[in-house]
Amino acid sequence: MAGERKRVLVVGGSGYLGQHLLAALALELASAGAGDVDVAFTHHRDAAPPQLLDALPGVRAFRADLRSGDGLDAVSASFGQPHVIVNCAAISVPRACETDPAAAMATNVPSSLVNWSLSFGNDKSLLIHLSTDQVYEGVKSFYKEEDETLPVNVYGKSKVAAEKFITEKCSNYAILRSSIIYGPQTISPVDKSLPIQWMNDVLSQGKEVNFFNDEYRCPVYVKDMVDVILSLAKSWLSDGKKIQVLLNIGGPDRVSRLQMAESVADVRGYSHSTIKSVPASSVNRGVASPPDISMDITKLTQMLGIQPITFHDGVRATLDAEASTL
Ligand SMILES: NC(=O)c1ccc[n+]([C@@H]2O[C@H](COP(=O)([O-])OP(=O)(O)OC[C@H]3O[C@@H](n4cnc5c(N)ncnc54)[C@H](OP(=O)(O)O)[C@@H]3O)[C@@H](O)[C@H]2O)c1
To answer: From the CA atom positions of the chain, what is the Rg in Å?
Structure first.
């Protein structure tokens, strides 16, 4: 790789994580000495979000469909073989996966992307793939990477199938099992509702709202997730050492939705009186949801030396960032 310009491709760069990652990559590129990295991303909708293109003029956009692989050859023809491929593309809403399992499997198992990256016939590319905490069954606390995967819904099943496909086919990869990713809105706002912003919105209206008291997650602040990806990418670009790694990526706190809402209320100074504690079984969400998929992140902290921020600090950072853009 020495002497060659480096290329980073963010697949699904128009989504929530993808946009945050592209913004961070663009900042890195603007920093001294980093000018030899080119960045591109893919989107699935017909046109890339214009606000994103305007904000990041040095970043190239391509349309690609992971179900068929259409569009990937145009990336190699025009941008070149990427040294780092970060796969953020997915049908990421569990209910949508449950409604259309075939589309979920075809999109979330990145067979076309992996086959395309292998078609170059060399060891130049690192694949960083986003998986989920929903690969775990959710019947105990603080899952470790070596624990059994036993997903309870189609989304989790598609992610387990993706992990299996990648580990069997690839020789240089990092699979990141992410918890809920939260943080500020993206450059081009995403359609889906963001958890902290939604909680802040309903609590600020002073209406009574139900929050589950018995489903536990380890939400991770988006900047920490971006730092993990950047750290893995930089290592590969600088030392060229292949990896085969599977990492849980979460924040340090195991919290229920009720505790998440209480944190938002505390940061904003709202009363807790409108926060109603209910079991998850009180609502039919149209998709099974694992009760406790909190994760042990020792491997992450030991391998990369990254200590994700606490949930409370992340909520504060999220709401501060939102306030500064008003
Ligand atoms: N956000 C979370 O809380 C969370 C938690 C755990 C794991 N994850 C995982 O992290 C990754 C990123 O999540 P996210 O929240 O950023 O997802 P997201 O906002 O839903 O973005 C999904 C991306 O995938 C693209 N896409 C959808 N269908 C596609 C297809 N058929 N071919 C190619 N691209 C397609 C979308 O393109 P368009 O925008 O053009 O439609 C978009 O860029 C996903 O793998 C997700 O499962 C996310």
So the answer is: 19
What atom of ligand 1 comes closest to residue 18's alpha carbon? 16
* 38 beta partners: 7
Residue range(s) defining the domain that contains residue 60? 6-183+219-250+293-301
**pLDDT of 69-105, one tens digit each?**
999 999 999 999 999 999 999 999 999 999 999 999 9
Residues ≥6 apart with Cβ < 8 Å to 273: none
Query: Does residue 243 sit within a domain?
Result: yes
CATH number for position 243: 3.40.50.720
Residue 76 lies inside a defined structural domain of this protein:
yes
Let me know if residue 245 belongs to a domain. yes
pTM over 0.85: yes
Atom 18 in ligand 1: which residue has the minimum CA distance?
A: 15
Domain presence at residue 110: yes
For residue range 272-311, list pLDDT tens digits in order: 999 999 999 999 999 999 999 999 999 999 999 999 999 9
Using the mean position of ligand 1's atoms as its centre, give its distance from the Cα of residue 45 in Å.
12
As a whole number of angstroms, the distance between CA 42 and CA 5 comes to: 20
Nearest atom (ligand 1) to Cα of 108? 45
Tell me how far apart the alpha carbons of residues 15 and 145 are, in angstroms, rounded to a whole number: 26
Q: Find the residues whose C-beta lies inside 6 A of ligand 1.
A: 12, 14-18, 43-45, 64-67, 88-92, 107, 130, 132, 178, 180-181, 190
Domain count of the chain?
Answer: 1
